[in-house]
UniProtKB/TrEMBL annotation, chain A:
It comes from the Bacteria. Keywords: Signal, Transport. One of its GO terms (biological process) is maltodextrin transmembrane transport. InterPro entries: SBP. Belongs to the bacterial solute-binding protein 1 family. Pfam families: SBP_bac_1. The keyword Signal applies. GO terms for cellular component: ATP-binding cassette (ABC) transporter complex, substrate-binding subunit-containing. PROSITE patterns: PROKAR_LIPOPROTEIN. This is ABC transporter substrate-binding protein. Residues 1-19 form the signal peptide. One of its GO terms (molecular function) is maltose binding. Gene3D superfamilies: Periplasmic binding protein-like II. It comes from Phytohabitans flavus.
From TrEMBL, chain B:
It is found in: Cell membrane. Residues 83-332 form the ABC transmembrane type-1 domain. PROSITE patterns: ABC_TM1. PANTHER family: ABC TRANSPORTER PERMEASE PROTEIN, INNER MEMBRANE ABC TRANSPORTER PERMEASE PROTEIN YCJO. Gene3D superfamilies: MetI-like (1.10.3720.10). Belongs to the binding-protein-dependent transport system permease family. The keyword Ion transport does not apply. It comes from Phytohabitans flavus. One of its GO terms (biological process) is transmembrane transport. Pfam families: BPD_transp_1. Keywords: Cell membrane, Membrane, Transmembrane, Transmembrane helix, Transport. One of its GO terms (cellular component) is plasma membrane. The chain crosses the membrane at residues 12-41, 87-109, 121-143, 205-230, 259-279, 311-331. This is ABC transporter permease.
Length: 412, 341
């Protein structure tokens, strides 16, 4: 009897409490988000690569704030995806935030992002492949902040130790195999290769394949092109011409490369900063990735400046992004933390300032962006799981599985 | 007289409610209400935009549960993988940590032992250290060139690449007795999106490292509980059994353990519950890798909700996990019930 009363009391309390909370949860729909006028205070959430980036963005934001009469608070996130997820659920998103290209479609498809892309002046100046990455349902949602591509990084000391010269840098898959043979004979692991789609995917692009079609609407995983690519990579792994970083006791391929455990690696331009900081004595050169049967191919990674659809300060936010994506500002960022400007007009000057990065920036011409479709993250991490076991796995079955899961996720 | 008494009692009831009111409100607001809210979310297709209690949030009924339990696809496959991993984890961690804790308690409970205080502190120490800090230390210990592999190397064994090794222990065992390719019957058939061969993988090498860590950290806590129980066992009973001629093992089996049975039940229950929702070690050490062999339902729930934005399915996973824990605890209660001989 008493127990029943307690339960009833608790239930009543819960109902009352939920009713009380109810009013607090109601929210204005995105369209009626009231816009504020006059000087505003912008909240900016960034997923920083490190202290250098945080400081650079904070300085640029402070400069914009003082010249425009607004205030801008830059907060580096601990875990950007999770913090954004909570902010959207709690209806208090930051005005401006980084959106990773791989996550972009998830946000755009649920209406979290303001499609402001074409309000940015001269938005056609952004590289075409980056514009495609941030286009959803035909609308350019946000301005690319910067980008990176993958290149072939070669350790010059280990290279000459294996009796190879500058002229031996591989430009095709066959050459990659033959130099790997020579390097392995000299007692070094030839290639440190990250065990994810973000590295191995480059081989799929070189073979003329990719996981989804260009518009992100159809699954194209189970194709002869992709199979050829995975079989080639499997061959590299089986012959020990390539090793995954964990097998070399490294967190990522760049670490294995920096420790001198591998003569080559496939990484992006971020490896520059990492090597400078952790392994300053390693001598290396950067080259375009070897071409596959269907020509050159690489992957691009990019982030854009997202503006929340529920922001109260959209006008100021667009002006802020405008200031952050000018060619001069992007070159300043490039100097500060080694990213590549997303505007073509900054390209020439960038190559002049950083001649060693030419292979990376040239890659944008034939680069493939991340999968541009929502709800694909778990499918792709399942693909990564398969790639981790590629050495002994069956590439055909793996691709069939990715195909099935992608079709389910895309709702075909 | 009787009326007067009831009036007094009535006053007591009001006072009683007044005294428990803060707890009722706090529990209702921070425990019951969030649970009910999560239950609602698990029945919707909420995408994480704004409140889940708005109109316009699609109500999908049991679709989220169906995608986990009845529809063949990636969500069910991931969920069943996580259940398998956690099942092996529970099967190893709970008995080992209970036995180890009991053993340690018996050791430090001995009257002969010198510097008892030191050993008690030493055994209890891992329990009071932050699990994140311990996890990071274990990452170094189990690294490719870490302490464990160095020790194994001294006796001539080449240790595995612990956190990159997704092979299951049972598969490895079968491999050593000559079964190096899975039998067709096990690969072609399966249950709930996983083949029998996958179900029978056993914990992966990576998971074993985590199991070692968890056993090491929690056995101290449970040792403390056993120790408290052991000190309540009257000395006369032990002496009586000595006079009856019971040897050490018989004394433990027929005297000590029956006397501390309630504590055994407590330790097993707490162990079962905490092992079924293991999260922080996974989050810090492996994030479900390699090859999903350290994925657990609790971590999968987190990942599904906050990384994939499938909040409904994430909540559904946690409710299925809740049911599993309830069923397991009831089952264990039934097994350990007082039997009439």
């Amino acid at each position: 009897m008493i127990r029943k009363t307690v339960l009833a009391a608790m239930a009543a309390g819960a109902v009352l409490a939920s009713a009380a909370c109810g009013s607090g949860f109601d929210d204005d729909s995105a369209d009626s988000a009231q816009q504020q006028s006059g000087p505003v205070s912008l909240q900016i959430l960034i997923g920083s690569s490190g202290q250098a980036e945080t400081t650079a963005v904070q300085e640029a934001a402070a400069k914009w704030a003082s010249s425009s009469g607004n205030t801008a608070t830059v907060t580096p996130a601990q875990d950007l995806t999770q913090q954004l997820g909570q902010a959207f659920a709690g209806d208090s998103p930051p005005d401006v935030f980084y959106v990773d290209a791989g996550r972009f479609a998830d946000y755009a498809s649920v209406g979290a992002l303001e499609p402001y892309g074409d309000k940015i002046s001269n938005s056609n100046d952004f590289y075409e492949s980056l514009r495609t990455t941030f286009t959803y349902d035909g609308k350019l949602y946000c301005a690319p902040k910067d980008f990176s591509t993958l290149g072939l990084v070669v350790n010059t000391d280990l290279w000459s130790k294996a009796g190879l010269t500058e002229a031996d840098v591989p430009t095709t898959w066959d050459q990659l195999t033959s130099v790997s043979q020579k390097i392995k004979a000299s007692g070094t692991v030839p290639l440190a290769l990250g065990d994810t789609r973000d590295r191995i995917g480059a081989f799929m692009v070189q073979a003329g394949g990719w996981i989804t079609s260009a518009d992100g609407k159809t699954a194209t995983a189970d194709t002869p092109e992709n199979l050829q690519a995975l079989q080639y990579v499997q061959g590299l792994l089986k012959n020990k011409y390539a090793e995954y970083p964990k097998a070399m006791d490294a967190g990522w391929a760049g670490e294995a490369f920096g420790k001198g455990k591998a003569a080559m690696t496939i990484e992006g331009n971020w490896i520059k900063g990492a090597l400078k900081a952790d392994f300053p004595n390693v001598k290396y050169t950067v080259h375009p990735l070897p071409a596959g049967p269907k020509g050159q191919g690489t992957l691009s990674f990019t982030t854009c400046w997202g503006i929340a659809a529920k922001s109260k300060n959209k006008d100021a936010a667009v002006k802020f992004v405008e200031a952050m994506t000018t060619a001069e500002q992007q070159l300043a960022y490039a100097t500060a933390f080694g990213v590549m400007p997303s505007r073509q007009s900054a390209g020439a000057q960038f190559t002049q300032q950083f001649p060693t990065d030419k292979a990376f920036i040239d890659g944008v011409a034939y680069a493939q962006g991340p999968v541009n479709a929502p709800k694909m993250d778990s499918v792709l991490s399942d693909f990564d799981t398969g790639l981790q076991g590629l050495t002994s796995g069956d590439p055909k079955a793996l691709l069939a599985r990715v195909q099935k899961n992608t079709e389910a996720a895309l709702g075909q | 007289m009787s009326r007067k008494r009831s009036a007094v009692r009535g006053g007591e009831a009001v006072a009683g409610w007044l005294f428990v009111a803060p707890v009722v409100v706090i529990l209702g607001l921070f425990l019951l209400l969030p649970i009910l809210m999560a239950l609602w979310v698990s029945l919707t297709g909420w995408n994480g935009q704004g409140s889940p209690f708005r109109s316009g949030v699609p109500f999908v009924g049991t679709d989220n549960y169906a995608s986990l339990l009845t529809e063949d696809g990636l969500p069910r496959q991931d969920f069943m993988t996580s259940i398998r991993n956690n099942l092996y984890y529970v099967l190893l961690v709970v008995p080992i940590q209970t036995a180890l804790a009991l053993g340690l308690a018996l050791v430090v409970n001995q009257r002969m032992l010198k510097s008892k205080g030191f050993f008690r502190t030493a055994f209890y120490f891992p329990s009071v250290t932050s699990s994140v800090a311990i996890s990071v230390v274990f990452l170094f210990i189990f690294a490719n060139s870490g302490a464990v592999n160095a020790l194994l190397g001294m006796v001539g064994i080449q240790g595995p690449v612990w956190f990159n090794d997704s092979r299951g222990l049972i598969h490895i065992l079968l491999d050593t007795v000559g079964v190096n390719s899975p039998p067709r019957a096990l690969v072609d058939h399966g249950m709930l999106s996983l083949t029998w061969w996958d179900w029978l993988a056993g914990p992966s090498v990576a998971m074993s490292a985590i199991i070692a860590l968890v056993v090491w950290t929690t056995s101290g806590t449970f040792m403390l509980m056993f120790l408290a129980a052991l000190q309540n066992v009257p000395q006369q009973v032990e002496e009586a059994s000595l006079i009856d001629g019971a040897n050490r093992w018989q004394r433990l089996r027929f005297v000590t353990i029956p006397m501390i049975k309630p504590t055994v039940f407590l330790v097993l229950t707490l162990g079962l519950i905490s092992t079924w929702h293991v999260f922080d070690q996974i989050y810090v050490m492996s994030q479900g890798n390699p090859a999903k062999t350290t994925l657990t339902p609790a971590f999968l729930s987190y990942r599904t909700a906050f990384k994939d934005f499938e909040y409904g399915r994430g909540a559904a996973i946690s409710f299925v996990l809740f049911l599993i824990i309830v069923v397991m605890t009831l089952l264990q209660r039934w097994i350990l019930r007082e039997r009439k001989s």
